[in-house]
Design brief:
Layout (H helix, E strand, L loop, with lengths): L2 E3 L6 E3 L1 E4 L16 H14 L3 E3 L8 H9 L8 E6 L1 E2 L6 E6 L2 E5 L3 H15 L4 E6 L8 H13 L3 E7 L3 H8 L6 E5 L11 H8 L2 E5 L34 H18 L3 H11 L4 E6 L3 H8 L8 H21 L2
Helix pairs in contact: 1-2, 1-9, 2-3, 3-4, 7-10
Length: 333
């Protein structure tokens, strides 16, 4: 396993982080059926391969993901760096309504009192007295950054959190937070098919000494191989929102995969490994957050760390993916 410093926080985490979004089940992940024993086995396997970093959030299954983690990590909490979030909650109606899901209305609120209440809920569900990295899940267009960051810094000073992160933000928002205190990481969506962060965000993180944690590098499984295409998901399932699964996109996705197949043979790896290796090559500050529910997926994911892509293969992957992205833009409503 390869490890990295999480920004300037002093925390040394595995380059691969386990995303526990899918463990929450509910409407968003309609095919999740994991119990405490299965989750514990997954995290035992993680320690066996050197993965020590887990990401979750209160709204993943409306507390279900955190509660499952709290039970599964009993007795081994200190073996992992645990990361969760604030901003989205269903306990009251203060703030901006984000969505309705699983019978609850979820609101976005980054006021100081709400940030603290979010943390207390996380601590209870996760059965711990501290969080290693606490992230603003989404950003507020109402609450000043000064108020939010001020409370995060107080929580850090109190020992309830060890480091601060932001998600679904922008280079400008990172600079605002960083002008007030230390940000350890940003967490953003990016992939071979959605590579916009390469232009400004990742270079800024390198410059500022901030980790860039990428999520959805496999586009909700659409980039795990041609076998993942053509699936139909129940209404509300997170994966059904991705255009890469659309019927009209299938010929272009198949063409891209035809180009990737020889590279998988060259590097003796899976399609997922190939895409993840491309993601990791972008920057030394990159941390790979991958949704993992099965031990087999975990073991396959860490193989991506062993792949060193040749420059010409990187260029080919990017060229082939540009065709797919171009068609997606044309088909988008």
């Amino acid at each position: 396993m390869n490890y990295m410093q999480l920004g300037k926080s002093g925390l040394e985490v595995s380059k691969v982080a386990i995303g526990a979004f899918g463990l929450g089940g509910g409407q968003m992940w309609s095919d999740t059926h994991m119990d405490e024993k299965q989750a514990a086995s997954l995290f035992d396997a993680a320690l066996d391969v050197g993965v020590n970093f887990i990401d979750t959030a209160p709204v993943y299954g409306l507390g279900a993901s955190e509660e499952l983690l709290g039970k599964a990590l009993a007795g081994k909490r200190k073996s992992f760096f645990l990361q969760t979030k604030c901003a989205l909650n269903w306990r009251d109606s203060e703030g901006r309504l984000e969505y309705e899901r699983d019978g609850k209305r979820v609101f976005r609120n980054l006021q100081a009192s709400s940030v603290r209440a979010d943390l207390e809920g996380c601590l209870k569900r996760l059965q711990t007295d501290y969080i290693d990295i606490f992230i603003t899940h989404r950003q507020s267009d109402v609450t000043p950054v000064e108020e939010t960051m001020g409370e995060l810094l107080r929580l850090r000073d109190e020992g309830k959190i060890r480091a601060i992160g932001i998600s679904q933000a922008s280079p400008e928002i990172l600079q605002k937070y960083s002008s007030l205190g230390q940000v350890a990481l940003v967490q953003e969506k990016m992939s071979l098919l959605s590579p916009d962060a390469r232009e400004r965000y990742i270079p800024l993180c390198e410059q500022m000494g901030v980790a860039f944690q990428v999520y959805s590098s496999l586009e909700a499984s659409a980039l795990t191989g041609p076998q993942a295409l053509g699936r139909e998901f129940p209404a509300g399932d997170y994966r059904g929102k991705h255009i890469w699964f659309a019927k009209d996109m299938r010929p272009y996705m198949d063409e891209m995969y035809a180009g990737l197949k020889p590279l998988c043979e060259k590097y003796n790896c899976s399609y997922a490994n190939l895409v993840q290796a491309w993601t990791l090559h972008l920057s030394p500050c990159m941390n790979l957050l991958t949704g993992i529910r099965h031990i087999e997926t975990l073991r396959d994911t860490v193989k991506a760390l062993e792949i060193e892509l040749a420059a010409e293969d990187i260029q080919k992957m990017q060229k082939d993916s540009e065709i797919v992205r171009s068609m997606a833009k044309k088909l988008a409503p």
